[in-house]
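re: ur question from yesterday

yeah so i grabbed the chain u mentioned. its 315 aa long if i counted rite. heres the sequnce exactly as i have it in my notes:
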Amino acid sequence: MTTRLPHMQALRAFEAAARLASLTRAAAELHVTHGAISHQIKALEDELGVELMVRAGRGVRVTDAGERFALRVRDALERLADAVRETTAHVDERRIRVTVVPSFAARWLLPRIGRFVAAHPDVDLDVRAATALVDFEHEDLDFGIRHGLGEWPGVLTEHLFDETYFPVCSPRIAGGRLPARPVDLRRHVLLRGEGEPWVPWFRAAGLDWPEPMRGPMFSDSSHVVQAAAEGQGIALARESLLGNDLRTGALVRLFDVRVVSPRRFFLVHPPRLAKSAKLALFRAWLRREIAADDTLDVGRATGARQAPRRTSARR
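ran it thru and got these structure tokens back, copy pasting raw so excuse formatting
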């Protein structure tokens, strides 16, 4: 005898309500009305002949039977989503969707997109700039280029290059009277970026100075570089974000002291795409661009590393 399966909408409504312990939040997540969620769950209970949820104060509580059922439904929905992603990943080999932090997208990747299009005119590259972590298991993305320590669970990571910092400024700053020695920085405005302290560079330059507490602060590293180019102060710039500014003279490097950041650039992707043709194509193009950029500190490639935990594939 074949068991008749409940409607998918009813299962999704119940799973969301059970997980969120709220009909209202479930409705918001699924973009339907509160009444629609309530109706779907009631229809599901009538069909199964089992009470799945009961009201508890202003919210809802899942019954014991409902809790067991919710776990099985959630697992089934996740498996179904995995199957859809795996199938479309093989079908849609001519579209590459990559997530990149905004500063790297603006200052390094986007100026090179024209060369990718010229080399691969039949491939559609979809670049999405975002600062937030992304979940490859639930979002419509293939790869990411991320800046960090490389320790993200559930994804494969491939080291691309290291990151170095050194001070830069506009040649017009202070009427062209640029600081000749690191100690001369005390007479200038120091631009600051969130999460990018000056102290490691001070130490490398032999300065026992505390972290600057005054001066403009920027949340995006590319804005720090832009502010320096506009003559607003001296920036401790990430080398990868300088582009052609040093070559064109929009910015000049101060001193020979530089520091290597513990945070590096990585190509990250979910394990299911490890052997995909689109990854091989994008990786090869990316590494050619990196090799041609003589300003980057490529360092030692670490190859691919996989965090074995079966958690959300973030980053």
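noticed a couple things. The radius of gyration is 26 Å. also DSSP finds ten helices and 14 strands in the chain.
anyway ttyl
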